[in-house]
Design a protein that fits this description.
By secondary structure, this protein is of the alpha/beta class. It has five helices and nine strands, in the order E-E-H-E-H-E-H-E-E-H-E-H-E-E. The protein has helices at residues 46-58, 75-82, 94-106, 143-152, 168-181, and strands at 5-12, 15-22, 65-69, 86-91, 113-116, 128-134, 154-164, 184-193, 201-210. A seven-stranded mixed beta sheet has the order 5-4-3-6-7-9-8, sandwiched between helices. Strands 1-2 form a two-stranded antiparallel sheet. Helix 1 (46-58) runs parallel beside helix 2. The chain is globular. The relative contact order is 0.15.
Length: 222
């Protein structure tokens, strides 16, 4: 099936980003009973908008290698690239990686990387200064896999930057991660408003965790 797309503009303070998005997300649903086939990657969620805004206003990735996990359409990764990162997009859907890289090119980024990988059997022979992800810790059954990815694919003392709309499992993961790895945490809340008559306003939590790997975790399972 040919993926139908359209172009929108994402507005951040002092920045307007053209982004190619899926025109009809529902058309991608082939099996509603299989969660792996629900096209969550095809939406720009509030958590991605909040993370992108935080990166734009607070981060300097100049010369650093950054991995975006669960990149979807790539908004936070694109903004990280605009803030100097050598960005690699990762998702388990080829269509997501195609659009992430397309959006990077649309915003003038070159030399971006891509990695097709499932968190449950993630194989990537690189380490990064930062791993970023929007709403990737929503389900505890993935926590053990993501903890292993964080440990295996960041440099010693590297950083994590994750966002979410106030999910209890994410808070629980962050607290356990901070306690077990000795990471230093900065917690911010970014307001996000979208064009939705029912749920237009969100408070997106941003967790910036630096210094993990200085001591290893005891055990970090889901």
């Amino acid at each position: 099936m040919r993926l139908r797309t359209k172009e929108i503009v994402i507005k951040l303070p002092g920045l307007e980003l053209p982004m190619v998005v899926v025109e009809d997300v529902e058309a991608l649903i082939t099996d509603p009973a299989d969660e792996d086939k629900i096209p969550l990657w095809a939406e720009i969620w509030p958590a991605a908008r909040g993370l992108a805004g935080y990166i734009w206003e607070n981060m300097d990735f100049s010369g650093l290698k950054v991995l975006e996990l669960g990149s979807g359409l790539g908004l936070p990764g694109v903004v990280a690239g605009l803030k100097g990162a050598r960005i690699t997009f990762s998702d388990y859907q080829p269509g997501a990686l195609d659009l992430s890289c397309r959006n990077a090119r649309l915003n003038g980024l070159t030399g971006v990387g891509r990695h097709l990988g499932d968190w449950r059997c993630f194989r990537l022979g690189e380490k990064y200064d930062w791993i970023v992800g929007s709403d990737i810790l929503y389900d505890p059954k993935f926590h053990g896999f993501l903890a292993r990815i964080f440990l295996d694919h960041t440099v010693r003392g590297g950083g994590l930057l994750v966002s979410h709309p106030g999910r209890k499992p994410t808070f629980e993961f962050i607290e356990k991660w901070r306690r077990e790895t000795g990471s230093l945490e900065e917690h911010a809340i970014v307001p996000v408003q979208i064009d939705d008559p029912h749920f237009p306003y969100y408070e997106i939590h941003i967790h910036k965790l630096a210094g993990h790997g200085l001591r290893g975790p005891d055990r970090h399972g889901g």
